[in-house]
Inverse folding.
């Protein structure tokens, strides 16, 4: 019997856009996620898959509605997966008081502090529960899975890829929070979720994780796109720190900076095709 509850299904570019819910053991609450299955997958073909982690205030719907990725995924034969950005209905004090913390702001980590540690376990949820569930229930190819994300989700994608190269064979990001220890968003979230010991924060900081690598984790390269008209660039994102860590290690990084582009989905939809092709190339050689 399936563990997934299909909430809705929509025909899209010859494939199927689906929204699911399931009872999560890691989170201890129901969790939602979305999947786009291209026509090739519906016909039984084994397809590469790409997980997208969304940013602050977003949900499992945001990427699928706004990015315009399904047409490209249908053409290239790629499965798209978008989990939610945090637990819902934990009803902890203060979890819904600010847009950059709590609900829709899980930062893709495993909280260690009360009360957050009871439900805010997005890192383990994705790696230990959702991905195995997708492999079992939807025949996602475990050997051809990539990850990408935007802003808070770009942070999550880089961290998950660096910590779990056995799961993710390719990685890219749009405007990631690339050094959250240096970011007001990151410090606010980490101090509450992880406590005062900042050495534990380094487990969820992509720049610190890259600095700690002993060998090049993604020799075929990492792709990051950043808009230069992004209002959060100087204070919150710090891609230059991640670029420096990559340079010191010898990790190939294609950091593309775009005049005039900001932080939102008009920026993402402008370059989403190149990201999917980046992943398709690397996943096809896996």
């Amino acid at each position: 019997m399936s563990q997934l509850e299909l909430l809705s299904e929509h025909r899209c570019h010859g494939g199927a856009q689906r929204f699911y819910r399931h009872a999560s053991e890691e989170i201890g609450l129901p969790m939602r996620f979305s999947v786009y299955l291209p026509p090739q997958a519906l016909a039984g073909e084994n397809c590469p898959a790409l997980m997208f982690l969304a940013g602050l205030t977003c949900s499992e719907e945001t990427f699928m509605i706004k990015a315009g990725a399904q047409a490209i995924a249908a053409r290239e034969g790629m499965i798209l997966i978008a989990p939610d950005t945090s637990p819902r209905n934990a009803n902890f004090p203060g979890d819904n008081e600010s847009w950059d913390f709590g609900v829709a702001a899980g930062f893709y980590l495993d909280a260690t502090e009360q009360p957050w540690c009871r439900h805010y376990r997005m890192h383990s949820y994705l790696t230990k529960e959702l991905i195995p569930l997708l492999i079992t229930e939807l025949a996602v190819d475990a050997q051809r899975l990539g990850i990408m994300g935007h802003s808070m989700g770009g942070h999550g994608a880089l961290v998950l890829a660096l910590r779990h190269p056995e799961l993710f064979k390719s990685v890219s990001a749009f405007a990631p929070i690339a050094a959250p220890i240096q970011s007001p968003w990151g410090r606010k979230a980490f101090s509450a979720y992880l406590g005062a010991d900042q050495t534990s924060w380094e487990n969820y900081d992509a720049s610190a994780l890259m600095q700690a690598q002993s060998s090049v984790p993604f020799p075929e390269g990492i792709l990051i796109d950043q808009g230069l008209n992004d209002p959060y660039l100087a204070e919150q994102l710090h891609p230059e720190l991640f670029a420096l860590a990559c340079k010191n290690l010898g990790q190939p990084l294609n950091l593309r900076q775009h005049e005039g582009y900001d932080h939102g989905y008009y920026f993402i939809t402008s370059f989403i095709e190149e990201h999917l092709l980046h992943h398709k190339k690397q996943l096809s050689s896996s």
